[in-house]
């Protein structure tokens, strides 16, 4: 296997100001990703995705301590998407991508419902055209009332490979900023943005999302949890 440490600690790398702990964390993340995608992607591809994912979160000012973890999670999702696009992963499961502006409210609630209701029968991702910093606390509280925890999620952007891997792209308020790829099914859900709303005002949005997600699962032929 390629020595990943040399690349991650190279002073020519854009984030050479990283602490030793962060460099080691990224090296460990790259090693885990290399093991997970062994035989599918080489070290160069994995490093490129990990570095660009790290840059994304560093740019928006995420907490430095969590940056390597966020970068690894995002890079893994992107590599999973790329594997589907390139035909390395064929499990027959439908893939749905939920997009909104900040990926902090609507798309995260939709993702929470979809993942909970579909269980392992389908795959869902989410993203935003202008990702925020944190999950909307009112959205998280509203989902908790349904027994669904979305606090472990994080706002992130959409990327080309993630959009191309989706069978259905659900847009919610991102307008012209939403990506368009030929051959991909798109559907727009007209929903209020929960940003700045209190819990009582978010509940109707949550309930509307649940109805829409259940209908989408039915269209996809995916049995929903009762």
TrEMBL record:
The keyword Transferase does not apply. GO terms for biological process: response to arsenic-containing substance. Keywords: Arsenical resistance. The keyword Cytoplasm does not apply. InterPro entries: Phosphatase-like_N, Ptyr_pPase, Ptyr_pPase_sf. Residues 94-219 form the Phosphotyrosine protein phosphatase I domain. PANTHER family: ARSENATE REDUCTASE (PTHR43428). NCBIfam families: MSMEG_6209_Nter (NF046112). This is Putative arsenate reductase ArsC. It comes from Spirilliplanes yamanashiensis. The lineage of its organism: Bacteria, Bacillati, Actinomycetota, Actinomycetes, Micromonosporales.
